[in-house]
Amino acid sequence: MTIKQNGGIFGRKPDFIGITFGGGSQELNHYSEGSWTIDVQDESGNSSTSSNSNGQYVRIGRLVTVAGFISNINTTGLTSSDEIQVHGLPYTANSYTGSLYFNGVIVANSTTYTGLLSAALLDDSNYFRIFDMPSGSSSNRFLEVSALTSGSADLKFTFSYFA
Known about the structure:
Elements: E1 2-3, E2 9-10, E3 19-21, E4 27-28, E5 31-36, E6 39-42, E7 52-60, E8 63-73, E9 84-87, E10 100-103, E11 105-109, E12 116-122, E13 127-133, E14 141-142, E15 153-162
Parallel strand pairs: 1-3
Antiparallel strand pairs: 1-2, 3-4, 5-7, 6-9, 7-8, 8-15, 9-13, 10-12, 11-15, 12-13, 13-14
């Protein structure tokens, strides 16, 4: 179906399932929603365990919005000086050469940090890192495993990215 500027609606093209807004480059051809498995890892690829986790997503076109929580993260077996990575995003981030996206909201309990937490998502990846942005400081950093109190740390988050 194509919706024209003047409000006219026309039938769909034979090889396209979706909605076109005014022209071919304005196609909306993807909608999905569901759950995804949250996997908290260190940068060496070791996975943590937890007592409970839930990841949900909605994708409309290229825009993916994720939300999730993971509670009582057990860091046994993780390298304390490694950065925390949250793997398992439902779609790989779009590839914009050399890009790093900071967005969303992250709330953490039983975790040591000094500022505002944000999701840091590299292009062409399916995981994010947690970025600590202290107010009025130039010492921004990625959270390390040692920032989590093993067995009681919780993470809750929501953010959007392009697939």
